[in-house]
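__Protein archive entry__

___
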Amino acid sequence: MGFSLPAAELEATLGVLAVKMPSMNVQLVMLSRLVRLVHATIHNQLNERLHKHHLSESLWHALLAVYARPNHEILPSELSNILNLTRTSATRLSDDLVVNGWATRSTHPLDRRKITLKLTKAGEDLIQRVSPETNEVHRRVWSALSEPEYEQLQQLLTKLLTAA
């Protein structure tokens, strides 16, 4: 997957913590650490690929969110909700999309108080160029799982998120 898990050191550390802190559930600490390492691996590999195209992972996800919408248009508030960002962060991403020529801003046709972001041809072309690289990162990372394992992991992670 692209990272080496210092399993022996981590297990030894957790063993010491289990003795010193009997109330600590070391299995949960281990699971949390593993989730973090998988996330960091995906994040680092994606950003390595995206950086070549002057993109961050946040900008990439913003482009995809706009692309997925009807007519490739989105309200910044919708972008904020989809990406789980503050309104300020969504505005910053919107600004970056516009400055780079990947999206345009216009007044919403039904409510002049709202601003609509629309993907440009340059934004669409960028998505077409970059998506094979990001797809390869995801394929490589998740290839260690069989289809039933992937489905089970997805169900378990969804269950954790909905319970939180």
Q: What stands out?
A: The longest strand covers residues 103-107.
